[in-house]
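Need residues for this backbone.
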């Protein structure tokens, strides 16, 4: 793993998902095979494979403290092109220190992660004015998870983190995205742990080789996503969990 400490020029960026986004790191140690953020290599010129290098924006919290004074308050997505709680966050705490800035200044936040490391900051999250935490969970099958997301946390760890956060009064939701095979039991496993669920299909082609290698081409079709997505949404709603299909 190649790690480089860098000085960012800015931290808050406009986003098409929420008003703002913050990426405390450039690159992601999880290295998920399907990740759309792989496109970043075109701009960073990293030679390492996706997941094998991370730039740490060591000045991000200080920059953010200045930027929030000049920008219009809006919901901040942490993060768009990296996992803010990837393993290196345990050492640098860039995400936590950025959250402290946003909390002091009353900015609403959505955290998206696959890592139970977010629980480290539970003390901060419980006292936040307006915050929600979303975990990406595409399947309940550990073998499939290890194929598509070999360096990310186990499914059970993610579900347990959602359980703890939800119990502590933190608003939570799950992104079943990209929806992979063997997601049918997620409604029962997530019941009582999330406020709502969003389901999305595989929108990019980076992982097409994985589908071919493991004979999963049938789970890459529009027909699969339409049928399984509708069925899964129904199962969530049957359990009283609000669910949105976004494809």
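Answer:
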């Amino acid at each position: 793993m190649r790690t480089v400490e860098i000085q960012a020029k800015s931290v808050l960026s406009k986003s098409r998902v929420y008003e703002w986004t913050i990426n405390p790191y450039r690159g992601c140690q999880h290295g998920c095979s399907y990740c759309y953020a792989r496109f970043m290599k075109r701009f960073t010129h990293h030679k390492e494979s996706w997941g094998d290098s991370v730039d740490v924006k060591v000045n991000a919290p200080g920059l953010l403290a200045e930027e929030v004074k000049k920008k219009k308050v809006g919901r901040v997505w942490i993060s768009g092109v990296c996992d803010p709680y990837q393993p290196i966050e345990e050492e640098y705490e860039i995400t936590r220190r950025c959250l402290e800035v946003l909390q002091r200044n009353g900015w609403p936040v959505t955290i998206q992660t696959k890592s139970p490391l977010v629980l480290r900051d539970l003390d901060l999250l419980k006292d936040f004015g307006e915050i929600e935490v979303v975990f990406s969970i595409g399947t309940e099958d550990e073998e499939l998870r290890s194929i598509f997301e070999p360096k990310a946390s186990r499914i059970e760890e993610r579900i347990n983190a959602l359980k703890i956060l939800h119990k502590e009064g933190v608003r939570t939701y799950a992104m079943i995205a990209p929806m992979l095979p063997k997601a049918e039991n997620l409604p029962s496993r997530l019941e009582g742990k999330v406020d709502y669920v969003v389901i999305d299909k595989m929108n990019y082609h980076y992982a097409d080789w994985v589908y071919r290698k493991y004979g999963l081409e049938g789970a890459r079709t529009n027909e699969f996503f339409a049928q399984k997505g509708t069925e899964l949404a129904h199962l969530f709603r049957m359990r009283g969990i609000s669910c949105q299909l976004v494809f």
